[in-house]
Amino acid sequence: MGTFIQLVIDGLSTGSIYGALALAIVLVNQATGLINFAQGGMAVLSAYIAYAFTQIGLPVLVAILIAVVVSFFIGAIVERFLVRRFERGDPDTAVVVTIGILTLVTGICAWIWGYNNRQFPSLFPLDSIDVFGAVISIRSLGTILAIILIMIVLQLLFMRTKLGLALRAVAINPESAALSGLPVGRLLMVGWGLAASLGAVAGSLVAPQLTLTPGMLDTALVYALAAVIIGGLTSPIGAVVAAWLIGVLENLAAVYVPFIGFDLKIAVPFVLVFVVLILRPQGLFGRKVVVRV
Q1: What is the distance between the alpha carbons of residues 66 and 46, in angstroms, rounded to a whole number?
Q2: Which residues, including other chains, have CB under 8 Å from residue 2's CB and lie 6 or more apart?
Q3: Helix-then-strand count for the chain, H and E
């Protein structure tokens, strides 16, 4: 029982890393209709900004809050001067642009801070507690609770607030939104800014567990995209639940399924993606889109 609980908690902790990025991807998609491959790089840049403020003596919480604000403006500027030129054109071109931004941001981080591993201070205590023989890190529990809180806030934003409804309207049909009097350009900037701020939180939560490097979220971004596909592009709750599912099933399959083991556990999320795309293409929690012709 202790081993099982340990695997589940570790899986939830790892899944929370994927879920943090998945939430930012969902946020950008709901605000602009794009899949943002640059989200991992922007989260890493935000984590480096927070790290820089901790190095001048600021408490880690204050440094993260400053990074969140700075990241909002970075995200808004990226949308206004780079992404906007391609948003309403060919979707494939816009995707390539976000990949290019990912490469650019990663290169900037490496140029400024180098490729050496840097230890980011943890927002939570490093102590552990014992639950039925399983050693559970307080940092892991804190990360899980933080992701749950962010997930709830995003769900309420999109479903219960005027800003969230406006962002969704702009993403679905910008022409009709503009005719309705919505400031489309401003809302697109806000959407990217909010996603960048969320990336700052995600990067700051993840960096203490992975150590801070320019490419620390490259693998996590792949898992986050898998979580978005499984959970649904329209559902923050679905993205996080899918990320947790990936993390837990990976751990359980590695230990309890002999032919998978630790070498093949990376295939677990992609098998899930394959099954979900066949049975429910909109994702487990996604909404089916109906197009009138």
Answers
A1: 10
A2: 132, 133, 134
A3: 13, 2
- At 293 the pLDDT is 46
pLDDT digit string, tens, across residues 157-174: 888 889 888 888 887 788
Q: Which residues of 65-95 are buried (b: 16+ CB within 10 A; e: fewer)?
A: bbbbebbbebbbebbbebbbebbeeeeeebe
C-alpha dihedral over 218, 224, 226, 231, to 10 degrees?
Answer: 180
pLDDT averaged over 10-residue windows placed end to end, the chain, 293 residues = 80 87 86 84 94 94 95 93 78 84 93 92 84 78 87 85 87 82 89 90 86 89 91 87 92 84 80 88 74 48
CATH code, domain carrying 242? 1.10.3470
Interacting residues of 226 by C-beta distance below 8 A, sequence separation 6+: 18, 242, 246, 269, 270, 272, 273
Residue type, 255: V
Domain contains 292: no
Give 28: exposed, middle or buried? Use CB within 10 Å, 0-12, 13-18, 19+. Answer: buried
Residue ranges making up the domain that contains 136: 2-279
**230 contact partners, CB below 8 Å, separation of at least 6:** 238, 242, 245, 246, 269, 272, 273, 276, 283, 284
Count of the separate structural domains present in the chain:
1
The confidence score (pLDDT) of residue 88 equals 66
